[in-house]
Design goal:
By secondary structure, the chain is mostly helical. The protein has helices spanning 3-47, 55-72, 78-97, 104-129, 137-164, 179-190, 203-245; strands at 169-171, 198-200.
C-alpha cells in the first residue's frame, strides 16, 4: 500500500471517529437537556409557584418547550425528524388554538393530539437510549425521561376518560379539574403507590389504572434488562477487538 493511500485511510478513520464522537456527544447532551427541562417544568417550577395564576398558559408553554426540545433530538434522523416535526406541529397548533376556548370538544382534541405527540417523542428518546455503544449515565437519564413521559401520557388518558364518562373517578377532595390532579394520580398509579385519595369508579377507569400500573413495572424491568444486555455486548466487543489487535 502506498504512503498516500495510508494517509487517506488514516484520515478517513480519524474523520469517522470524530463524527461518531460528535454525534454521540450531541445526542447525550440532548437527552440530559430534555430530562432537565422535564423535571423543571413538571416538578420544580410548579413547587415554586409558577402556574398558579394561569395553569393553562403555564402548561401550554411548558409543553411547547418540551415538545420542541424533544423533536430536536431527532435532528440527525431525517425521516424520524420529519414525522416528529409534523406531529409536534399539529399538537402545538391544536393546543394553542384551543387555549382561547373552553369547550369539551376542543379539550378532547388537545388530549388526543398530546397523547400522539408524547408517544412520538418517547420513541425519539428511545432511539437515542438504544444507540450502539457503551451505556452511560446520560442514556439512563434518557430512559428516565421516557418514564416521566409515560406518566404525562396516562394523565391525558385519564382526563379523556373523565370527560367522556362523567363520574369515572372519585376523589376525596371533590371534583378533579386541574391538570395537576391528573398528573398526581397518574404518577401515583405508575409507581403503584396508590394512596387511595383518588380512585377509579367505572370499568373503563379501572382498566386504564391497571394498564398504567403494569406499564410502570414492565417498563422498568425491560429497560434494566435491555441496558444491561447492551453493556455486556459492548464489553464483549471491546474484548474481541483487543484480542484481535494483540
Amino acid at each position: 500500500m502506498s504512503e498516500h493511500a495510508v494517509r487517506l485511510k488514516r484520515g478517513g478513520v480519524r474523520n469517522k471517529a470524530k463524527g461518531i464522537i460528535v454525534d454521540t456527544w450531541q445526542s447525550q447532551a440532548n437527552l440530559s437537556l430534555f430530562l432537565g427541562l422535564e423535571i423543571a417544568i413538571a416538578f420544580v417550577l410548579p413547587s415554586l409557584g409558577f402556574g398558579r395564576e394561569d395553569i393553562r398558559l403555564y402548561s401550554n408553554v411548558g409543553f411547547s418547550i418540551l415538545l420542541i426540545s424533544g423533536v430536536a433530538i431527532a435532528w440527525g434522523q431525517p425521516k424520524l425528524f420529519t414525522v416528529a416535526a409534523i406531529v409536534g406541529s399539529i399538537a402545538l397548533v391544536t393546543r394553542w388554538l384551543a387555549w382561547g376556548f373552553h369547550s369539551v370538544r376542543s379539550g378532547l382534541w388537545v388530549d388526543w393530539e398530546t397523547l400522539l405527540a408524547v408517544a412520538v417523542i418517547a420513541y425519539v428518546l428511545l432511539t437515542q437510549v438504544f444507540r450502539r455503544g457503551r451505556v452511560t449515565h446520560v442514556r439512563i437519564q434518557g430512559a428516565i425521561a421516557v418514564y416521566l413521559m409515560l406518566g404525562v401520557a396516562w394523565a391525558h388518558a385519564y382526563h379523556i376518560a373523565a370527560v367522556m364518562h362523567p363520574g369515572a373517578f372519585a376523589a376525596q377532595s371533590g371534583e378533579l379539574v386541574l391538570p395537576s390532579d391528573w398528573i398526581y394520580f397518574s404518577f401515583v398509579t405508575l409507581t403503584t403507590v396508590g394512596y387511595g385519595d383518588i380512585t377509579p369508579a367505572i370499568p373503563v377507569a379501572k382498566t386504564l389504572a391497571v394498564g398504567e400500573a403494569l406499564t410502570g413495572q414492565l417498563y422498568l424491568a425491560v429497560m434494566v434488562a435491555r441496558l444491561v444486555a447492551m453493556e455486556m455486548v459492548f464489553w464483549q466487543q471491546q474484548v474481541t477487538e483487543n484480542g484481535v489487535n494483540e
